[in-house]
Fold this protein.
Amino acid sequence: MQKVCLNCGIRKDLKNFPHDARYRSGTSSHCRKCRGSFASHWKKANPERTKKINDSYYKRRRSLLERIQSLEKYLGMAWDDDSQLHQKINEQNKQEK
Ligand SMILES: [Zn+2]
């Protein structure tokens, strides 16, 4: 299956279009190449907002990591004991609700 990119107008194979649930077709209207350049243009045009987005991302990630590490300590478990750790996190999330 092929699709025409709305930005560059080139007909490309569907695999060149990133998955995007916001679109009815399930794929973005812009090809990967155009999407990539949009993102870098946007970042250049919006340095402040990019910084804010990155900051909040890292903050969230850090707090999640800290939470996992404290859980790990609490449980006496190794980092890579994934399934059990996730189970414990799920249990804790349920309790918080
Ligand atoms: Zn394109």
In short: DSSP finds three helices and two strands in the chain. The beta strands are 2-4, 11-13. The chain has a mean pLDDT of 84.
